[in-house]
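Hi everyone, sorry if this is the wrong subforum. Our group has a chain we'd like a structural model of before ordering constructs, and none of us has done structure prediction before. Sequence below.
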Amino acid sequence: MSFSYPILPGGHLLAIEGLEAPHIAALLDLAESYALLNRQGKTQRDLLKGRTLINLFFEDSTRTRTSFEIAGKRLGADIVNMSVSTSSVNKGETLLDTASTLNAMNTDILVVRHAQSGAPALLAQKVQAAVINAGDGTHEHPTQALLDALTIRRHKPDLRGLIVAICGDITHSRVARSNIHCLNAMGAEVRLVAPPTLLPADVTRLGVQVFHDMTKGLAGADVVMMLRLQKERMSGGQVPSAREFFRFFGLDREKLAYAKPDAIVMHPGPMNRGVEIDSSIADDPVRSVIGEQVEMGVALRMAVLDVLARGLRRNV
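Answer:
Right subforum, don't worry. Here is the predicted structure as tokens:
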């Protein structure tokens, strides 16, 4: 596929905010082609042959890091997974010193997950490599939003006008923020469903509808996206108990019945079964597309690597 306009301005993917609908649609189109090739077993290419991709994860990750590794390998890249727990970062090295080290190694693509919002953007200013934000603090997780949009589009071809209910811990969710920006850009109607204690202070500026009742928030929804309770980021008192949370905001058959009969159920993982989602819903082969989200994660990240590879400055 050829592109007549820049898909990722600046040569990085740091956020969804600021990307326009044509940019997003073109990325999803490319990702769809990779999804088809992956299923046919025809994705071994040399697009990134001779390029080095480093996964630099300051926070734990299973799906994101592994899917970037698989995506890079399928495109022929040399992959390095840096373990922060055994690196110089754990010995007190600053982020900027790390950037200097990575520059000296002639890194081509740097995938970064960090607990501090803005860390990938700072690295992008200091390194020669193309930088991909794999989640920074409570800011954004752009590739997750794009793979979610790709998954939705495979079931609901036109994102415009779709009602998407994002439910759960919105305050601490970078996934929610990226999805809000992505879905708004694509013309969907976004609803946030959560208790007041789990909604960000700037929620009124996000271009969404807010509900504190699951039955009202899910009424007529095309997509129900559940989010994990991020207890590790909570200061305490925001949720009385897991049992109480599930009673009022956990997705079960009774609450899902208020959505459209063909509504799909999503979750970025990892799931807390019995807290934000019932196992019978998570494993429902008709309604749940959670497994497909994981599959689309590889295809979408291959598309992002493909696009960034076109703009790499160092020849191989």
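For your construct planning: The CA atoms of residues 172 and 310 lie 34 Å apart. The beta strands are 52-57, 78-83, 109-114, 130-136, 163-167, 189-193, 209-211, 223-226, 264-266.
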